[in-house]
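Action item from last meeting closed. Structure (244 res):
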């Protein structure tokens, strides 16, 4: 693992880029921490969607809010064909989404992403105060495709925000099985008029989540039209379940 470039400090948020390596794969990531980190600071893993990358607008906004409002740390990594994992940028969002749909068929990427998130946790843990406190996960759409199995596998994760996905697509069956193994509190977000994921498949995935403490939030709108209120609520949900 190596840190890349200089730290960026913005209004008490320290941003560090890193690159971890696992099974010969290079995993580009970003770690955000408070300028004054406390012992055993909670860490939130942020997964991005299929059109995005580790420093996309809503990922960056969520990371900074978690740091500034709650004193948490946050970390995000690029997905399998996203951000700095690419040799060159995609022509446009449509081309990137087509590439994602092809990569989704490689079901082995689920296990690879679990390993990659493990590498990101080890990278964060090289800072004495980070990576040893409570863990949480936040990720929608592709962030759920690769994040829900992580939540099921990583028992240190104490709470999660998932959604915009269902028992659908190449990994739909896997998602249902992994959902049943989740025991931590879960907030699940869905868009009632989602044009990409069938409504009944979203409801089915929520139903299969094994946690006794789970919430479903559904609002009108298309797949990418998550309201600002839901981002704020998910921030509070994570804080409520991470803080004593």
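Sequence:
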């Amino acid at each position: 693992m190596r840190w890349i470039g200089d730290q960026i400090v913005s209004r008490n948020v320290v941003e560090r880029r890193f690159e971890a390596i696992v099974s010969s794969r290079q995993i580009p990531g970003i770690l955000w921490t408070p300028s004054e980190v406390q012992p055993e600071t909670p860490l939130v893993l942020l997964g991005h969607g299929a059109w995005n990358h580790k420093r996309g607008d809503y990922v960056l906004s969520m990371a900074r809010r978690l740091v500034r409002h709650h004193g948490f740390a946050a970390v995000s990594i690029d997905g399998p064909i996203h951000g700095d994992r690419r040799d060159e940028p995609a022509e446009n969002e449509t081309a990137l989404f087509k590439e994602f749909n092809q990569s989704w068929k490689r079901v082995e990427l689920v296990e690879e992403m679990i390993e990659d998130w493990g590498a990101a946790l080890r990278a964060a843990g090289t800072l004495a105060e980070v990576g040893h406190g409570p863990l949480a996960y936040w990720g929608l759409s592709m962030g759920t495709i690769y994040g829900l199995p992580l939540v099921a596998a990583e028992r240190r994760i104490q709470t999660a925000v998932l959604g915009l996905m269902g028992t659908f697509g190449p990994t739909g069956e896997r998602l249902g099985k992994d959902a049943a193994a989740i025991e931590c509190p879960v907030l699940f977000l869905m868009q009632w008029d989602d044009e990409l994921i069938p409504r009944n498949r979203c409801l089915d995935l929520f139903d299969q989540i094994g946690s006794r403490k789970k919430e479903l939030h559904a609002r009108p709108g298309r797949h990418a039209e998550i309201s600002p209120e839901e981002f704020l609520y998910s921030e509070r949900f994570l804080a409520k379940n991470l803080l004593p």
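Note appended to the action item: DSSP finds eight helices and nine strands in the chain.
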